Amino acid sequence: MSFRFLHTSDWHLGQSFHGQSRHVEHAAFLDWLLARLKCLTPDALLIAGDLFDVVNPSLAAQELLYDFIVRAHEQDAALEIVMIAGNHDSGSRIELPAALLARLKTHALGRVRWVDDSADGGDAHSLDCQHLLVPLHDRDGKRRALCLAVPFLRPAEVTGLGAGEDESQDVNKPERTRSEAYRAGVARVHEQLVSAARAARQPGEALIAMGHAHMRDGEVSENSERPILMGGEEALSTSLFPDDIAYVALGHLHRPQRVGGQERIRYCGTPLAMDFSEVDYGHRVLEITLEDETLAGVEEHRVPCHVALTRIGPAPLSEITAQLTALVAEADRELESARWPWLEVSVQLEAPVIDLRARIEALLEDAPLRLIKLVTRYPAPSAENRAPKGVKLDELGPMGLFERHYRATYDSEPAPSLIEDFAQLLEEVEIAREARLAGEPSKATKPGRQADKTASADKAKGGQS
Predict the structure, then answer these.
(1) Which CB contacts under 8 angstroms, 24+ apart, belong to 255-261?
(2) Cβ of 375: how many Cβ atoms within 10 Å?
(3) Beta strands at 126-127 and 133-137: parallel, antiparallel or unpaired
(4) Residue 153's closest CA among 182, 124, 126?
(5) In this structure, are residues 228 and 234 in contact, taking their beta carbons and an 8 Å threshold?
(6) How far apart are CA 45 and CA 154, in angstroms?
(7) Is the distance from CB of 283 to CB of 271 less than 8 angstroms?
(8) How many Cα atoms within 13 Å fall on the side-chain side of residue 61?
(9) How far is it, in rounded angstroms, from Cα 81 to Cα 69?
(10) Can you list the alpha helix ranges (DSSP code H) found in 90-212?
(11) I want to staple 168 with a disulfide (CB 3.0 to 4.6 A). Which of 159, 196, 239, 329 is the partner?
(12) Are 280 and 314 in contact (CB under 8 A)?
C-alpha cells in the first residue's frame, strides 16, 4: 500500500525584503498550499525548518503559521503535520505550543533533548530518541512510517558531550577542530536516532528522515543562506542517512536539488525567492510516494509566483533607460499595489552619477513597480591604480589619499569640480580644528555651502544608493 506526503521548507515567514514586508506573498503561498492539500489529500505534510525568518518573529508572521495549521486541520482532520526548527528559528519558540498543536495532529520539534542514564549503567548524555521519533499514519489511522525529525542542531547542543564539556565555546580552539567536533556531534545524534528507529519500527513501516542542515556538495544560493559555522566547515555527509531510510526531507539550502545525485535525499527549496539571485529556481513543493518501506516516486508541484522579482541589468545607463521605459510601458496597471513587482536595477558606470537614483525613479514615476535595490558597477581598476608603486601613504596628505582612493575605485581621475569641492571641505575642517585648539566656538559653515557639501559627499561616495 502507498503512503504519500508533501515536503516543504524554508518559508521564512516575516521576511523583510530590503526593508519591505512580504506578508501578502506568504499569505498567498499558504492559501495555495491549502488548496493543494485539499486536491492531493496526502497523509502528511513535512516542513523542514526555517518556518520564520528571525528567532523573534512578528505577531503577523506567527499568525500566518498558526492560522494555516488550524485551517489545514479544519479542512482535513486526517492530515498529520510535522515541523522542525531551522537555524533561523528559535527551537524553544517552535516547541512552546507543542501540546496545543498536538490536538491539531501537528508535531513541533525545536530542540534535541539529552537524558542522564548513568544511574542505570548508561551514558550520562543519551539522546532522548522518543522525542524525535514521530509515527505517521495513513488516512485509515494505520501506522505506515516513522519520521526521524531532527531540528537544526546548534553546536552548543551536540559538541563536547562525550568529554563533559562544550568545545564550541572554546574560542582558543582552531576553527577546523571545532567544526570537526560539530560534525562528530551531529553524527552521534543520527547514529543513536537511527538505531532507536530501527528498534521501534513495525513490519512494513518506512523510515523517513527530516533535517535542517548544510549537506556536503549542496549548491548554495548567491546571497541567501546564513552560514552555520565560519568557513563552511559544517557541511555534512550523506552517510548520516543509511540505505534503509526511504526518503530524507531536507531544509536550509534554497535551491531545489538532489544531494549526491540521490533521488531519496532532497532539498525542496524555498516556496518564494528569498533574493533576486533565486528568481529562476523554479520554486516547488515535493509530493513523495512510498510503497511499504521503499521510495516509489517524487512529483514536483511548482509554486506560482504571486509577486514578481524583476532584475534589470547589469548594463550601461543608456540600455537601462531603454529597458525600464519598455518595462513601464508593459506593466500591468490593474495590479493592486501589494502585488506590484519588486525591482532590482544594476547599472554599469564609467564614473559616478550623482543623481542616478533620481533619474531611475523619474523613469518609474507612477508605474506599478517597486524599486528596492539599485546597484552600481564600475570598471575593474588597473593594477597601477589598485596599488601604485613607490607611494608612501604618509607623504600623500588628505588630497593625495582622496585622489588615490578615487582612482582605485573608479579607474579614472576625479573631475576638477570634485577636487575643488574636496579642497574646500578640507579647508573648513582645518578652520574648525584650529578653532577648537584655540578654544573658540566653531565657525558656521558659509551660507549656501551645506548643499554643496552634501553634493560633494555624494560624489565622493560614487553616487551609490
Answers:
(1) 255/219, 255/220, 255/221, 255/281, 256/281, 256/282, 256/283, 256/284, 256/286, 256/300, 257/218, 257/219, 259/215, 259/217, 259/218, 260/215, 260/216, 260/217
(2) 15
(3) unpaired
(4) 182
(5) yes
(6) 24
(7) yes
(8) 20
(9) 8
(10) 91-95, 98-102, 129-132, 155-158, 175-200
(11) 159
(12) no
- Which of 211, 217, 216, 253 lies closest to 234, judged by CA? 216
Task: At 260, list the grid cell.
Answer: 549526491
pLDDT in tens, the chain (465 residues): 799 999 999 999 999 988 899 999 999 999 999 999 999 999 999 999 999 999 999 999 999 999 999 999 999 999 999 999 999 999 999 999 999 999 999 999 999 999 877 666 566 678 999 999 999 999 999 999 999 999 999 988 887 654 344 444 555 555 557 778 888 899 999 999 999 999 999 999 999 999 999 998 778 776 655 555 444 556 899 999 999 999 999 999 999 999 999 999 999 999 999 999 898 889 999 999 999 999 999 999 999 999 999 999 999 999 999 999 999 999 999 999 999 999 999 999 988 888 999 999 999 999 999 999 999 988 876 666 666 666 665 666 787 788 777 777 776 777 787 888 888 888 888 888 878 887 776 554 544 444 444 444 444 444 444
Q: Whole-prediction pTM value?
A: 0.79
For residues 49 and 147, give the distance between their C-alpha atoms in angstroms, rounded to a whole number.
15
Record the cell numbers describing residue 79, joined without a space.
Answer: 492530515
Helix (H, G, I), strand (E, B) or coil at 22: coil
Q: What is the torsional sign of CA 28, 137, 241, 204? A: negative
For cell 524525535, name the residue: 132
